[in-house]
Amino acid sequence: MEINLIFFSNLDSSNGGVETWLRLFLHEVLRGRQYFHKINIYYYTTPSKQIPLPADDNSNIIRYIPIQLSEKKGLFNNFIKLLKFHSNVAKALKKTHAVSALSLGSYPTGIFLAFFLNLYGIRRNTRHYIWLRTTLSKHIGTHTSRIFSKYIFFFEKKALKDADLVISNGWDTRDNYIREYNVPSVVVPNAINLSTYTNFEDVRQLPANKIKIAYIGRFFEAKGAHNFVSAIKIFNSHYPGLVDRVTFSFVGWGEESIEDFARTTPNCEFVGRIPNYKMHTYLATIHCGVALTKSGDDTGGGGSGVSNNLLELMAAGRLILAFDNIIFRQFPRQDFMIYVKENDDNELARYFSQIVDNFQQYYPMADNARSYAMSFSINEHVALLHQYLAEDTN
């Protein structure tokens, strides 16, 4: 099977989850050589920033097709870049008589590609698939495009209704789009390369008298970064006897105020971005990771889907401290993480104290996380995607 992946990205693996997914996906395709004989990847480049490609291929299975864009900033220039990228992609698909195109994300790619496929008269000959990577209505509240949200949602619904197949990255994403637009979808949850975590160091081997609790992700309100900071302040104030027995680790990027807090607070450390291929090395040093993405519209929901960071914490056999919401309750099993009421920073701080004071009590929960991670292997993920695409074409 040949597929065309359309991705408005420069493919920098430190950007986030979708770039991380692409790297894992391509490596598995090259390893297995079973389901896809050709993958064409449309992405953008800029003159001054050269990004290493996510996978080298000497067998010509993967073909990278860059679209050169300018580096001009601003809302108008960003819109022009969106038009140029997706217009050029649609023209290339027309020229190659592509039978299908898979848009990674409904916005911007799903919306813009649907427009140009119809504009250039090739939609009737090219099947269009849209892979939802989040729930846009929950994500866009943290995005600069939110001022146009009314129009974006209108065109998102139109593009999804027009698509031949919609894929969701999690059960909560699927349910959200049924509720919002009455658009059904199949679920292909995120996955990881489990072989990376074979013979991984057990959390019991880490020192129990110095606990490391990590926040991994973007430092934004919708991702729970402010709650993490607030809970640390409460913990440091209410549990002075435990302050020296814990390090709160900040991995990622985002608001400067949070980075400054991590750099200047004695029992915190600022790590910054870590490329995904190095993440397992870092996870070997921590006891616990927090998963604080918000779900509610009234709290600035941060998206949906099965998080790659969460899966890696599970595979590493680390304790997970998560907000009690639909994002983290979507799993059939719920015995592998601690649930904390969303936005309850006092409760979050109390759990910090319990983890630091007696981490051994949570060993069984960490074991459960590791065993459940076996359900999210990248090879099964690739097979499931191929199955759904094959069913559509047949």
UniProtKB/TrEMBL annotation:
GO terms for molecular function: glycosyltransferase activity. Keywords: Transferase. This is Uncharacterized protein.
